[in-house]
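Entry for the shared binder. Reason: the reviewer on the internal report wants the predicted structure included alongside the sequence.
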Amino acid sequence: MISHSPKIGGDIPRDLSQQTHRRLIGVLGFLLPILLYLVAGLRPTAPLPRWTPLDSVSAYYYTGAVAILVGVLFALSLFLFSYPGYEKAIADRVIGCVGGAAALGVALFPTTAPEGLSPPPWWNSTLRMVHYVSAVVLFLSFILFAVWLFRKSNVPNVQERPREKRWRDAACLICGLVMIGSVLWAASSLITHAPIFIPEAIAIFAFAISWLVKGEAYQPVLSAMRQLRSKMIPR
């Protein structure tokens, strides 16, 4: 995020994005694993166990929650494609478009069907590979936003940045590191063959939190708390 510090001279890139845009991306990401689990539980698909997490987030394509999975991915794709970032910051738009294209790839090219279910007649192993590559690229774009783009500033010295900016940078870095760890955890399943829903969900939550922090989603809450406090304190 670009800090508008009066200590630094020169032109400051203008933020072309609205905070609501960032908050919507964060909210969609945060709700995705929760809605998939709930809707699939309310609309069970035999012979899959009810109220038991599937092996992966992508496996919910074959459940009653398919509309949630595809719908949220399409919405995220649209928001990422239209994410303007900062003026003259090409990386914001490039990584946004790459992430948007990857989200479409995850939605349009499903993974392997869970055991006991048959894939659509048009499905083949090539589509599975496109799905995996798209998922990796999507998470890489999320990581780059969190650890790099969201932490950029026109103030070179970290200690001279506003305290709130430093707090946001630290939060985004932590989210990025959590995503890296979760992606590596999920990748270990290539050897262990363990389910990856939990590491995927953690990575998605971390991605969502980084966008909510960047979008300063906490500000309305803080503002409401200040107003409540002012009303409670006698004058």
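Summary line for the report: Helices lie at 19-42, 66-81, 90-108, 125-147, 163-187, 189-192, 197-214, 219-232.
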